[in-house]
Give the backbone structure.
Amino acid sequence: MSFMKLLWTVFPNKKSRNKCIVLVCVIVALVVYIMGVWSPLRADTSFVINNGDSVSLVAASLRKNHIVYSESLFKFAIKRMGGRVQRGDYDIPRGASMWRISRMFANGRVATTDVVIPEGLTIKQIKVLLINTPRLSGDVECAAGNNAPVCDLHDGDVFPDTYRVAKGTPRLAVLELMRKKMENIHDQWQRAGYITPRPLKTWNDVVTLASIVQRETPRESEMPTVASVYINRLRKNMRLQADPTIVYALTNGYGDMRGEPLLTGHLKIESPYNTYTHNGLPPAPIANVGVAAIRAVLRPADTNYLYFVADGRGGHIFTKTYDEHMKHHADWREIKKARNKK
């Protein structure tokens, strides 16, 4: 017997039947509301929609994994929001309602992750960092035969920054974002018609010196002064004698001694990056630089300084003469001895 025949049998009076229909509608609406608002999800969870997954397939998977109560209700909600789900990796919070989940999938609100690339790292260090970032996917090296620009990166080619990307983004795609951002900065420099301070001539000169400045000091306030020291030395045809270039040569471009000390004997290493034995700038950048280091090179402080040494407090002492420099250098050696004893 159908519901309507049963209704007519049980409630022969029209008024009673109408009251019953209203009551049934209210109950159905209440059930639908409860199933849509209340969530069976008791913990945060991840859910992946692959390319080509249908709404029915997604609905069935959600029900199977106890993320929603009803496949049909989920499909109804998606239909009200355009009828499509977007591929991606989603983070669904505990207690999320079916309506909230539907909006996430319909609008493509995929999970994101922040990739923080500190200034002063080399390409090799950045690739290690990306490999150790679990919410990304893929390798940091290109497949054979791929000639895309991201497959041939050199230090100075990418811009360190915080990049917010979708969870599961390929690591090569993050490197490409970094490469494009640095390319844009170069383009802005060209459009602005910046004049490089003598004797620098090219963008490679600017970024190469900026990479040395970046590795010498983490303090942005010091960078223009450090840049002025090196520019003054270049103008006087003095060798830069920058320790970070020695580290770069010793580590084959990795840029980190991994706890090993830099010794006097290391200053004799044969390398075009050895600024103790070669005049002028090294052939290319030794790290990837931020805006502050680039700006410091383009607008160095107006000084007569030719030397600087660490002050033991995270900064540096700048001097004009070699005798002054050696005095402060001796002070720095005493500070290091005291620290080593501790």
User: Anything to note?
Assistant: The chain has a mean pLDDT of 89. Strands lie at 45-49, 88-92, 112-116, 162-166, 307-310, 316-319. The CA atoms of residues 62 and 299 lie 58 Å apart.
